[in-house]
Amino acid sequence: MAETSESRQLLEALARWVGASCPDCLEPLCDHGVLCAVALGLKDLPRCLNCATKGLGRDLVATKNHLARWLAGKDCYLRAWAKADSARCKTPCPLSGLLQEAEIPDEAELAFERTDEKKNDAPMLVHDFGDMGCGDLVLELRQKLRGVAPGAVVRVIATDPGAPEDIPAWLRMVGHILLKAAPPIYDLRKRLDP
Ligand SMILES: [Zn+2]
Ligand SMILES: [Zn+2]
């Protein structure tokens, strides 16, 4: 993805949404709030970070750490964030310290998150769901993943015709990483956050 188009999208989202109300709590969105929403994939209907986190069923602190790490790796977001810090937020903005407050990621953990193709991607567990329909499959998979360590790689085998769309979509929504999709085989890494 070209940095320029990502950065343009970001500026468009800021121009469009800063000052608009969060659709859930009706608080106005500041630059920081819009940046977080865009980073979470909500650029078409941004919510404030509290409501977005609740909506995604995530933990707020874990999401903040995750966002801070993610923002720190993207020049266009960092530039926009620096601008947001000097901008029109009402003070004190609870988000302005996000990058400073976040836990400093340790190198080992970062390396772990980045090695998508490396040795520790050999699946530790295999679940064959046969031709189970995707609704049931997702429920069952969620149940199985409860007993799996964070960061573990799990191979799912599913022949349902909806699986190539539904499995990646569900993983994205709940925050697990899809390592490989070669229907009927899907390798995923369980997310590190609680
Ligand atoms: Zn809200
Ligand atoms: Zn702000």
Describe the structure.
By secondary structure, the protein is α+β, with helices and mostly antiparallel strands. It folds into 2 domains: 103 residues, no CATH class; 71 residues, Translation Initiation Factor IF3 (2-Layer Sandwich). Strands 1-2-4-3 form a 4-stranded mixed sheet, with helices on one face. The two termini are 29 Å apart.
Sum this structure up briefly:
With 194 residues, the chain is an alpha+beta fold.
Dominant shape: elongated
What integer is the average pLDDT? 82
Q: Could you give the count of β-strands?
A: 4
Query: Helix count?
Result: 9
For the report, how would you describe the main beta sheet?
4 strands, mixed
Q: What class do helices, strands and sheet pairing give?
A: alpha+beta
Domains, number: 2
Tell me the β content.
5-15%
Q: How much helical structure, as a percent, in the residues?
A: 40-55%
H-E string: HHHHHHHEHEHEE
**Ligand types:** zinc ion
Oligomerization: single chain
Strand order of the largest sheet: 1-2-4-3
Keywords:
alpha+beta; Translation Initiation Factor IF3; binds zinc ion
Topology:
Elements: H1 3-17, H2 31-39, H3 49-55, H4 60-72, H5 75-85, H6 98-101, H7 107-114, E1 125-128, H8 134-146, E2 153-157, H9 163-174, E3 177-182, E4 185-189
Parallel strand pairs: 1-2
Antiparallel strand pairs: 2-4, 3-4
Helix pairs in contact: 1-2, 1-5
One zinc ion binds at residues 22, 24-25, 27, 47-48, 50-51.
